[in-house]
């Protein structure tokens, strides 16, 4: 029998899972999170994950994962698309053009998030991280323009994804320059975080007070 509760697996950090949580919470999905803790330095053992990694029925074992009854899926963006399709498919776009734009934006945003995350593990230079962030936001800001959301007046997956991405960028931005340089992006971040479902999540104990990165990172480690 298929379980009604989704199981989400990830490290006990914000990392990539907070993006997934935004979708789960906005959709009102019933879920629980399985957290894995990286070992302490200098070895930073991943044993707690490796002990389960190949025993969960995952076709391509990785974190984050979702287990939905007898169905499993890995990789952040596909998991987000799956949750949206299951509960609120309009988040994935409603026409061929909207769906194409949503997929394009998700690829762009996830690429930027990955670049910034890798910077955090390779360097302790927050200023350089901010420079990379602003370079990445240039075309994203142009795409958003003066619209409330990327699809105009309709919320979609990229809006939920970018909220957590901007939270990371603001961690680099110690002098709070984002609002001056990209006011439309800053406004979108606030708009998403004020959605009733998201606001309730951010103020709840379900929103764990985790750091952005794992213990081995040079910036914002747990």
The fraction of residues assigned to DSSP E strands is: 5-15%
Number of alpha- plus pi-helical segments: 9
**What value does the Rg take, in angstroms?**
17 Å
**What is the name of the CATH topology of the largest domain?**
Glutathione S-transferase Yfyf (Class Pi), Chain A, domain 2
What percent of the residues sit in helical stretches (DSSP H or I)?
40-55%
Strand tally is 4
Q: Give unreliable regions as ranges.
A: none
Question: Distance between the terminal alpha carbons, to the nearest Å?
Answer: 37 Å
Q: Which structural class do you get from the secondary structure elements? A: alpha+beta
What is the CATH class of the largest domain? Mainly Alpha
Give the SSE order as H and E letters. EHEHEEHHHHHHH
Detailed description of the structure:
The protein folds into 2 domains: 6-89, Glutathione S-transferase Yfyf (Class Pi), Chain A, domain 2, CATH 1.20.1050; 91-195, Glutathione S-transferase Yfyf (Class Pi), Chain A, domain 2 (Up-down Bundle), CATH 1.20.1050. It is 51% helix and 9% strand. It contains 9 helices and 4 strands. Helix 4 packs antiparallel against helix 5 (126-144) and helix 5 (126-144) runs antiparallel to helix 6.
SSE arrangement:
Layout: E1 6-11, H1 17-27, E2 31-36, H2 47-53, E3 65-68, E4 71-74, H3 76-87, H4 96-122, H5 126-144, H6 157-172, H7 178-181, H8 183-193, H9 196-202
Parallel strand pairs: 1-2
Antiparallel strand pairs: 1-3, 3-4
Helix pairs in contact: 1-3, 1-6, 1-9, 4-5, 4-6, 5-6, 6-8
Q: Would you kindly provide a brief summary of this structure?
A:
This is glutathione transferase. Helix content is about 50%, strand content about 10%.
């Amino acid at each position: 029998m298929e379980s009604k509760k989704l199981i989400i697996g990830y490290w006990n950090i914000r990392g990539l899972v907070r993006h997934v949580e935004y979708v789960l919470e906005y959709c009102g999905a019933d879920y629980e999170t399985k957290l894995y803790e990286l070992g302490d330095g200098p070895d930073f053992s991943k044993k707690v994950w490796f002990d389960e990694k190949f025993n969960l029925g995952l076709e391509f074992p990785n974190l984050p994962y979702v287990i939905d009854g007898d169905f499993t899926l890995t990789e952040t963006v596909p998991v987000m698309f799956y949750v949206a399709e299951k509960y609120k498919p309009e988040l994935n776009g409603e026409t061929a053009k909207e769906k194409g734009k949503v997929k394009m934006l998700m690829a762009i945003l996830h690429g930027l998030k990955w670049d910034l995350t890798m910077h955090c593990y390779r360097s302790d230079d927050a200023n350089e991280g901010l420079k990379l962030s602003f370079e990445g936001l240039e075309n994203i800001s142009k795409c958003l323009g003066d619209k409330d959301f990327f699809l105009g007046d309709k919320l979609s997956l990229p809006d939920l994804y970018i909220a957590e991405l901007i939270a990371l960028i603001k961690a680099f931005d110690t002098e709070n320059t984002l609002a001056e340089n990209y006011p439309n992006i800053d406004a979108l971040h606030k708009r998403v975080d004020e959605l009733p479902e998201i606001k309730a999540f951010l103020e709840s104990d379900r929103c764990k007070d985790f750091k952005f990165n794992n213990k081995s990172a040079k910036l914002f480690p747990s």
